[in-house]
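Hi P.,

Sorry for the delay on this. The queue was packed all week, but I finally got your sequence through. Input first:
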Amino acid sequence: MLSTGANSFPENGTNVSSISSNTSSRTVSSSSSIVNNKNESFTAVKRYFEDQTDKQNKRRKELEEKRNSSNLAEQANNLKPAANRLRQQKLRALKTPDKKNDDKNKDRIRKQVERALKTPDQKQVDNAKDKKRKSDSRDSRTPAQMASDKDKNKNRMIDSRGSRTPAQIASDNDIDKKRKSDSRDSRTPAQVASDKDKNKNWMIDSRGSRTPAQIASDNDKDKKRKSDSRDSRTPAQVASDKDKNKNRMIDSRASRTPAQIASDNDKDKKRKSDSRDSRTPAQMASDKAKNKNWMIDSRASRTPAQIASDKDKDKKRKSDSRDSRTPAQVASDEAKNKNWMIVSRGSRTPAQMASDNDKDKKRKSDSRDSRTPAQMTSDKAKNKNWMIDSRGSRTPAQIASDKDKDKKRKSDSRDSRTPAQMASDKVKNKNWMIDSRASRTPAQIASDNDKDKKRKSDSRDSRTPAQMASDKAKNKNWMIDSRASRTPAQIASDKDKDKKRKSDSRDSRTPAQVASDEAKNKNWMIVSRGSRTPAQMASDNDKDKKRKSDSRDSRTPAQMTSDKAKNKNWMIDSRGSRTPAQIASDKDKDKKRKSDSRDSRTPAQMASDKVKNKNWMIDSRASRTPAQIASDNDKDKKRKSDSRDSRTPAQITSDNDKDKNRKSDSRASRTDDILENERLIDRTRNQKSRSQPPKIDLDVAIENFRKAISQGPNFVCSCCCRKLYRRSVIKLDLKKYSKISQPDLDLYLTKEDWICNTCHNKLVKGKIPCQAQANGLQLTPIPEVLQKLYVAPSSGKRLYTMKSTGN
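Then the structure:
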């Protein structure tokens, strides 16, 4: 069909032939075919082209008349900017706030893109024009406009600053710093001098007009600014400022007169004193912390030579200060020190007291270690003389008190030792013992042994019950520690020695001692078992089980064979002598023991028992003879049959539920490999059953077939749209296809009530059937022409002909 739009033909006055030559080949071919076939169609096309030509000639005349009216064109050009402004104002008034923001963002992005595409020369020219435009605009403002602009800028600045995020504030500060720095660096010497004069005059004027409150506020702001500036400096800037200050200080100090030096010292003292006196408690605490940190940092960075030099200077300063004191100052200092010592000691916490004791010990230890041999000899002589004099004048009560103090001191000293000190003391004692023992004579050795036995015996006999319990605990802990630190070789050696000692002790006993030991052991067993708590009984049982298990695991094959034979003989003898009541009792006990053992198993033990039983079952079944296999099968059948027959109705219901749950769990836990194996088994079984087809009654089969096709293929599948028999379809139930989403089901299923078995099996598995009509297999409507076809009866051939409609 030809296009009839007005824009389908040019407006430059071309004739009909040129227009027809510019149309598409399809239109021309179509027109030519119409002309060749139908005269009426050619007349309509000709009339259409003539109408279009008339319209274009008329439009051309109208345009020429408009061009001739130059006055109207000039008026239109003059009114165009005003019309555009009015149109823009109307559009802005109709815009919503969101639309305005969108337009602003688009305009900003457009300008950014334009700026990014500009060359450096274009940017420079645009910047110059923009500066000149802004300068001219500022210079042409009236005083009222200037005041208004200031207010607007101030409000804009307040609003924009109030809505900035911390990151934007930091970024703006950096940009402002950079701008000011660049502005300062690009100044000429004349501009620098001019700026200095302006700043100086502004400073004088502004300072002269300040009130006392403004002066105090400015001082605080100046202090804060300097403090913030100092805190924000980098390490390099700090080092640079130190060098500048140092050089400035050196230059200014070198040029001072003696009078200026004295004046500066007085001023400095007064300034420091006023500063200290005007500090708040918080500032005093802060200064102490700063001084402490500075002291720590400065001390940590000292070299060994500086440390030694500082110590010498400190000693000399303290010595000079002490030597220059008057007797009144000496007495005053002693009183102050005494009072300070009393106050500081009274206010110490236990932790501080312990810390002071440690420091005092370390100081005395360092003092002792730094003594020369001559000083050590002198101290020993002094201590010896002092000891003799102090001991000779003691009363018996003082002697007993000193002994108790000495014991307590030694005990505390031993208890407060660190592991390293204990190891060091052991080594020292061991070496001293070796040296002293090596130099003894045989008579001294015998005498020492007798003394040692007597000392130990007296010590044991004089112990209180509490000391005896304490010694037992210490011995027990010592035994545990010494055993834990033994190497495997030492453990084996100790076991062998212990076995040999016990064996020698048992072998050397007399019959009377043997009988006595057995009676003692029996009584001890009865007493110890009777006094055990349930927890101890459980612990003993566990230990006994572990001991027996370890004993069994450590047996050699020969020992295992021997134990089996012994157990077998013992079992035969004990069973042969049982009465019927004992047999029944033993069975009940055995059942209860096994039931308790099964119920108390952990999941890990249950899994282990299953594996063991499985392996035992495999081994025992593999070693059976055919006769044993047949016998076992018969026994198993009889056992299962008896078990089923003796069940109560409740047990039958319970067994059915368990069986259902087991099958359900088994099906749910099957892997793909198991499913594939089951399919293979089913396939093999089906093949075997097909290879041996059962005997079928032909009449019954025909009757079944006639019943199956009695309704005809009138059931349409909702997925593949095939017409099938009733036995090939089932009712459609969307709940069965939970693996496929609802939109996909809506796409692949129609509104039919039936679905074929093939499509149903695929959808249940979450797959789309390959024969689904949605896979491009839709049935198109039969054309009307083909609907009239029918098969004419003929002799052995199909002849297609048109049905007679009777017209």
